[in-house]
Amino acid sequence: MGFKGISDLITSRREEYLEQLFTLLRQKSISAQNIGIEECALLVKELMKEAGIKNTSLMETDGYPVVYGEMIQDPEALTLLIYGHYDVQPPDPVEEWLTPPFEPTIRDGKIFCRGVGDNKGQLLAQVLAIKTYLDHYGSLPINIKFLFEGEEENGSKNLASFIEKNKDMLKADLVYTSDGPMHDSGAPYVLLGVRGMLYIEMTTKGANWDNHAGNKGNIVPNPAWRLVNLLNTMYDKHGHILIEGFYDHIRQPSEREKRIMKNLPFDLNQVAEGIGYKDLDMDGETYYNKLTMKPTFNIAGFTSGYSGKGMKTIIPSEATVKMDMRVVVDQDPKDIYEKVCSHVQKYAPDVEVKYLGDMIPSRTSTENKLVEVVTKAVHDSYNQEPVLQPSLGGSLPDYVWTKILGLPSVIVPYANFDEANHSPNENMNVENFFNGIHCTCHVINYLGNYTKKSSNTLIS
């Protein structure tokens, strides 16, 4: 029995699998507002049981519950840990949705619904792959564990502590995540890490209230200028971050990683159009190096004074800037925060710096044998060369696997590049959903064949 049988089985169950997906999508699970979280966790648990994952339970964390399941064939066999999240972003602004955000609707070959790409469609593709594989082959060739959390869209605040408390339960050889979009070329991705993040807020005050900009001009200080001047001491016109020690501890890409990035597909016009910035001017090697291997220093929002329609001549009493800094391996977000605070204390001690959140960067070696196996499985599933990228530009809680559990971790997204996750009209191509089921079956099979054929010790 080969993979044609798997493909045929998926095809014969299209309506059944879509209906299960629609059931999951209709269940709200907005972690930022604690809407429907418990109900969705229970639904995920039931869908897992229906798929044949009998040993499934809801496990408490310091926040929302984790849905955990496992299928242990042989304690000595290779163990794959599959991760995903069942929570979603708020649907706002609701008025920009063409159809209700929690009523899945198919238009032009796409399923439109909040959470379909991020992450319910990808999560369920993994679960239904187990059902498909079991019904076709009768058993799994490897052990599989599942961890689906309910706080990813809220910063995965309690995931690390849950992992720390359950290290023995979560022992595995490889972590496999399907989240995010595929490459903008349409090719499948194999991602080996993420950039981390530090998010801060800086606030400074002037007078106790807003003042008339004419009557008190040159008299009352403007806190917006104070923040602007501070920011100019932190970042120059060439994009260089001026905070002392900011670039310490950055791991340089290996020679293989450099070769990989140099050969990654890149279409300048397509990328420029995709981001809405026609003046983009760089080659592919520079693009990927900046996107994955370099830290950022981004102003996410600046608030001060009046920004409504028409005129209002005031000297504002307060100014606030929100900033996110993407950090790379082996930078420590908390170390960067301390350096930012020291810089502010030196140049503008009256500015208050508030820590809002962070995520640790993570990376798995391109030399890992299991990475090669997964890459081959993805290639053969899609019949297309996947884009192997050392790191994602964005941030996911990948560090809990590589840092806390010490495991290699691979991210293989199933959603289309234009999934519009976090935006109105979030969508997932219908075929991407079924291709995700197919790809997961391939990964399971190839990992099983690897353990049979290889007498080598698995490396992490």
Automatic annotation (TrEMBL):
Any matching Pfam family? Peptidase_M20
What the entry lists under SUPFAM superfamilies is as follows:
Zn-dependent exopeptidases (SSF53187)
Per UniProt, the keywords (alphabetical) are:
Hydrolase, Metal-binding, Protease
Q: Example GO molecular function term? A: peptidase activity
Q: Which GO terms describe its biological process?
A: proteolysis
Which stretches make up the Peptidase M20 dimerisation domain? Answer: 193-350
- Tell me which InterPro entries the record gives: Cyt/Met_Dipeptidase, Peptidase_M20, Peptidase_M20_dimer
Could you identify this protein by its name? M20/M25/M40 family metallo-hydrolase
Question: What organism is recorded for this protein?
Answer: Salicibibacter cibi
